[in-house]
Write a structure and sequence with these properties.
single chain, 756 residues, alpha/beta, Helicase, Ruva Protein, domain 3, six-stranded mixed beta sheet, Rossmann fold, ABC transporter ATPase like fold
């Protein structure tokens, strides 16, 4: 009898663009899904496999518990068998508030608080009292935030202007607002005198208010009369109205507007910890809880191992594995107090991975969405060993990946394709690495890196001098203008601090494209994101004489039954949720009236079904043509105008965001890892876009780990040598050809990439 394989069996998969496909995924193996961005990888792995595993897991709980858990709709498939519990590590940004840190995200902080409450000296009390969010534990000066926010008078006032010419830069305190008019016309100050020409007495009155014990009044003129209002000074008023209150409740002014006019410094009372000074007196082996939070994780491991009190030891042993996982993934330079929002893409990805690896359970299916994202080739080596150890512990590993080093660790490779969007959704190949070399038209495991042997020579440079943001060690560097430049180095080496901090500070006109996600929803489409939907509606309105709102499913044109959603979600009580295509509009979202009007033979739905490649042949408005061409430039020609942004893959979102910036008339482009989520073929297309931008006289600077991008550059800057305290130095500056002779980590992998 042939040996029976333990496999996950999937039949008739039809989610999104999947074309009724069948798959057997072997268990206790590393299974890598690859293929072009938008080819259907996520539809199989996340929308089918992960969703159905989670749905079936919830069926094991009583109904009253299931009612409180996330509920999953059964994926569109004929058969899904032999699934196991799943752990999913996605690429989505880490959710959390401004206080979210590595320690809170990894659930290590509560254990450290418990440790101090049990064995710290002098004793304080319960573990909650060691939290900056408790009434006892928070610092009385900064209310537990660890920072003192103070208005910066030079940001708030332009001293060269008069009150009439809007010297006050904060809109609510400047004309035509009532407070600005009161300040200008109330009689206390000369409204036409530049602030720099005020006498010292008048300047102090304007900025700080009257001296202690005195009062000043300024007249406010109403339509029906006037009255005197007490003047308290610009800074006291700003602090009272816009700092000492909950900014989220303000309707006209955002938190960002206020913070733009302030400086933030560590609180002197709690030294930035946010903790009550009495809490900081409690210590273990000479260190208080704030010291523990600031230690590099490698140092923290040593402190946890020093704890010898029996109760303390058992608590320390519970905190130990999480810290060790982070250190093992090369993040030993981080601290528990490091804010999650300040981590680079590669760091955040590994923190998420570490959070899920502390378990000793096996027979689990681990699903990773491009775990190589944001990682240096040296760190990818560490990642592949982690994937292998998961598999060797009798787990099934499913990975969506484009990186060849990760693909080469696979026991089973599944390539989706043959192209993207409508042209994808099929299994092009399934099997081992040798078979892929013969069968695949797009994934080349023997790919070698081509080094740019004729780099552009720059006549001018951008200068950064003595930069010391974050971990930068007084860095000075010259960056060629009108060239393609790559800034590389291991995670945490100072790349983002150098470029998004020091560089953009010197050159604020830079068009900087970061890794933040775009707003996605079921009602946001490609056409609305590009800003051409209103133009399409106006074309139809002009042709038909109808109001433009009739051609919007968010307005007059919405289907009356589903209200423009295209689907209905009937209430099925405690059963699995069900999404039903609206019977009235057949999923089009539009009313019959809206669909009855046409332009060049097509109604609004048929226009939105046009692909980007087809659009210019049909819609000839110059504004539409220009915006659509930018999407073609980044290889998104296969998407349709009406495709929702929520249905796009990670690589597609990245290129869509990039395209929205390419239409700007900027001279300096700074891009944070544009290769993220892209197949090698998509990357080659993107590289052509960058080269054309430079040929047109622009400067393009990439923060990159991708060796193909680095090798094709005109100039390379490498930061390092390590991360955190061990980084922040310039290791190399030169051409890719010169880098081949250098003694750095990136140079080592570049040499290996050239040899193949």
């Amino acid at each position: 009898m042939p040996e029976k394989r333990d496999e996950i069996i999937l039949r008739g998969l039809r989610e999104n663009n999947l074309k009724n496909i069948d798959l057997n995924i072997p268990k206790e193996k590393i299974n890598v899904f690859t293929g072009l961005s938008g080819s259907g990888k996520s539809s199989v792995v996340f929308d089918t496999l992960a969703t159905e595993s989670r749905r079936q897991m919830t069926l094991n709980y009583p109904l009253y518990i299931r009612h409180q858990m996330p509920r999953y709709e059964r994926p569109h498939a004929d058969l899904m068998q032999h699934l196991s519990p799943v752990v999913v590590v996605e690429q989505k940004p880490v959710r959390g508030n401004s206080r979210s840190t590595v320690g809170t995200y990894m659930d290590i902080d509560p254990l450290i608080r418990l440790l101090f409450s049990r064995i710290g000296s002098p004793p304080i009390g319960s573990a909650t009292e060691f939290s900056s969010e408790s009434s006892f534990g928070s610092c009385p000066e900064c209310n537990g935030f660890g920072e003192v926010v103070a208005p910066d008078i030079h940001k708030l006032i332009d001293h060269t202007k008069s009150l009439r010419d809007s010297a006050v830069r904060f809109k609510p305190l400047a004309p035509p607002g009532w407070q600005g008019r009161w300040m200008r016309d109330g009689g206390l100050f000369d409204p036409d005198l530049p602030i720099k020409d005020f006498t010292e007495e008048k300047y102090n009155l304007l900025v700080y208010g009257p001296p202690e014990g005195e009062r000043a009044f300024s007249t406010y003129y109403y339509k029906e009369g006037n009255r005197d209002i007490e003047w308290d000074g610009l800074l006291p008023r700003f602090i009272r109205l816009y700092i000492n209150r909950d900014l989220t409740k303000l309707k006209v002014v955002s938190q960002e507007d206020v913070l733009a006019l302030t400086t933030r410094t560590p609180c002197p009372v709690c030294e930035g910890s946010g903790l009550n000074p009495r809490v900081l007196e409690c210590k273990i082996n000479g260190l208080n809880i704030a010291h523990y939070a600031r230690l590099e994780l490698t140092e923290l491991l040593g402190e946890l191992e020093k704890v010898d009190d029996p109760i303390g030891k058992s608590i320390a042993q519970q905190a130990h594995p999480g810290v060790k996982q982070l250190v093992g993934l090369g993040l030993g330079y981080l601290s528990l107090s490091r804010k999650m929002g300040t981590l680079s893409g590669g760091e955040a990805q590994r923190v998420k991975i570490a959070r899920h690896l502390g378990s000793s359970l096996n027979n689990i299916t681990y699903i990773f969405d491009e775990p190589s994202a944001g990682l240096h080739p040296e760190e990818i080596d560490m990642l592949t060993h982690m994937l292998e150890s998961l598999r060797d512990n009798y787990n099934t590993v499913v990975v969506i990946e484009h990186n060849l080093a990760v693909i080469k660790t696979a026991d089973e490779i599944i390539e989706m394709g043959p192209s993207a969007g409508r042209g994808g959704g099929e299994v092009v190949y399934q099997g081992g690495q040798e078979g892929l070399k013969k069968a695949s038209a797009i994934t080349d495991l023997d790919h070698t890196v081509t080094v740019n042997e004729q780099p552009r020579t720059a006549e001018n440079t951008f200068s950064i001098e003595n930069a010391s943001d974050n971990n930068l060690k007084n860095v000075s560097v010259e960056i060629p203008q009108n060239a393609l430049v790559s800034v590389c180095g291991v995670s945490g080496s100072g790349k983002s601090s150098l470029m998004f901090g020091a560089f953009t500070g010197n050159y604020p006109e830079t068009i900087a494209v970061g890794q933040s996600s775009i707003g996605t929803s079921s009602r946001s489409t490609l056409a609305t994101y590009m800003g051409i939907m209103s133009d399409i509606r106006s074309i139809l309105a002009k042709q038909t004489g109808q109001p433009a709102g009739l051609f919007s499913f968010n307005s007059l044109g919405a289907c009356p039954v589903c209200e423009g959603k295209g689907i209905t979600t009937p209430n099925v009580a405690f059963a699995d949720p069900v999404t039903v295509t609206c019977e009235a509009c057949k999923g089009t979202r539009y009313s019959d009236e809206a669909l009855s009007y046409r332009y060049k033979g097509k109604n609004i739905v048929e226009i939105l079904e046009l692909t980007i490649d087809e659009t210019n042949e049909y819609l000839e408005m110059p504004k539409i043509v220009k915006k659509v061409d930018t999407l073609k430039d980044v290889g998104l020609g296969y998407l349709t105008l009406g495709q929702t942004t929520g249905s796009l893959s990670g690589g597609e979102v990245q290129r869509l965001k990039l395209a929205s910036h390419l239409k700007k008339e900027g001279q300096i482009y700074l891009l944070d890892e544009p290769s993220l989520g892209l197949h090698a073929r998509d990357n080659a297309h993107l590289l052509d876009v960058f080269q054309r931008l430079v040929d047109r006289g622009n400067s393009v600077i990439l923060i990159e780990h991708n060796l193909n991008m680095i090798a094709a550059s005109d100039w390379v800057i490498e930061m390092g040598p390590g991360g955190g305290k061990k980084g922040g130095e310039v290791l190399f500056e030169g051409t890719p050809q010169e880098m081949l002779e250098a003694d750095t980590l990136t140079a080592k992998w570049l040499r290996a990439g050239v040899k193949g």
